[in-house]
Every structure is written in C-alpha cells, then in structure tokens.
Amino acid sequence: MRGQVHVSGAGAAPGAAGRTDWPMQGGSVSLGLHHEWTYVFINLGLGTNASAFNVSLTPDFVNVTGRGTYCIRSLPLPVQPRDGDNATIQVVTSGKSGSALYSCADITFRSSAQPLSGDKCQNSTGISAEYVGHASSPSAGSSSDPTSTSTSKPPGSAAAANQLDVVTIAGVLGLSMVYVLGVVF
C-alpha cells in the first residue's frame, strides 16, 4: 500500500496535534490501495506515544483484491478505552513482493464520535475482501465483515483460505530451510 491511510470517526477533522476522534466501540478505517491484491493487518497501540502495537484489530488478516479505496465501516475493539484516551492505529500491508508497508494514524477515543456512514465509507468498484483463517466468511453486513461495504461477495471460499495458509506456511518453512542449509554449507 502506498499513499494515505484515513482513520475516521464521524467525518470529523483531526483534533489536537493531528489526532482524529474515534468511536470508543470501534470506528472506520479507509485505505487507498494500489496493487492487484494486498494482505492487510490492522493493529492498535495504546497511549499518546505508542511504541508497541500489540492489540490486533484483525486477528485474521484481510486479503483485499483490487485497486482503489477499501473501507471497513466499523472495526470492533477488543479493549475498553476511556473517553479521551489516546492511541495509534497501525496498518500493515504486504503484497506480491513480500515486503511490508506501514502507515499509522493517531486517534483519540471519544464517546461522541461515530463510525462513518455508508455513503462515506464505500469500496471502489472491483474491490473485494475476505478474512484469511476464518472457518467461514463472516455474514454480510456484520461489523467484523471486511466486505460490509462491498456490493459483491468476496472471491474464494474458506477452503481456498485454508489452502492459502498451508501454501504460505510451506513457503516460509522452505525458505527457512534454504537459509539454514545455505549457512551450514
């Protein structure tokens, strides 16, 4: 992913020091993606100067296919912040080359902030997504559904996602063995 990461509450302009007000129950994340497909991981670092992004907002990464805007309308939080708490959202993307790109957005949790409405959180034409690692795809329209703003069902199936996990693990193990054997010999 190159470009911008937009983390939005109720369409509010960033607050003090470039922080965006974000709903305490979880908010919207809108990404500008520029590759045919991208793996997306979203993490949260708590505090004003977060250095550890140890709260995963996407425990199973999202496989996004297509170029353009990808928006998750309501990304639920596994923690309970207080009104006024600061945090940083970290978006990690990885594509075909295997390199990872990182973008961050500073937020302040506010009880008055709301996720973006459907007309402000829309995916570009041709964008689809699915969680990789789920036994089945989340139901359409659920707050944890990465395609809740998409007009089409995500491609593939849970079986395809599980095959991808096996292929990924086999590839990593294979590369590890090449590295180990290359160092030994």
TrEMBL record:
Pfam families xrefs: BIM1-like_dom
Q: Where is this region: Disordered?
A: 1-21, 134-158
Q: Where is the Copper acquisition factor BIM1-like domain?
A: 14-126
Extent of Low complexity compositional bias? 9-18, 135-158
Main location group: membrane
| Matches recorded under PANTHER family | COPPER ACQUISITION FACTOR BIM1-LIKE DOMAIN-CONTAINING PROTEIN (PTHR34992:SF2), HYPHAL ANASTAMOSIS-7 PROTEIN (PTHR34992)
- Quote the protein name from its UniProt record: Copper acquisition factor BIM1-like domain-containing protein
User: What is the native source organism of this protein?
Assistant: Apiospora saccharicola
